[in-house]
Design a protein that fits this description.
The protein is an all-alpha fold. The chain has one domain (5-66). The chain has helices at residues 5-15, 19-24, 29-40, 43-53, 57-66. α3 crosses α4 (43-53) and α3 packs across α5. The longest helix has 12 residues, at 29-40. The radius of gyration is 11 Å and the shape is globular.
Length: 67
């Protein structure tokens, strides 16, 4: 996510998170939920993240539901 500058800027702007928040919140359900909500709101971001993680987009959305 942060490797793509425009996507990273949108993520930080729309979630209100900082890079430090993301780094320190990797195990925090609220941070994870915010990132997954961001992905769910824009399918190209969801698909790109799923490809980078080698998972299906539906798996990311299922993870959001479990949170």
């Amino acid at each position: 996510m942060l490797g793509d500058a425009p996507r990273a800027e949108r993520l930080l702007a729309l979630t209100g998170l900082t890079v430090d928040d993301l780094r320190s919140g990797l195990g925090d359900p609220a941070v994870l939920g915010a990132v997954l909500d961001f992905l769910a709101a824009h399918e190209p971001d969801l698909v790109a993240a799923a490809e980078e993680l080698a998972v299906k987009p539906a798996e990311l959305m299922a993870a959001r539901e479990r949170l």
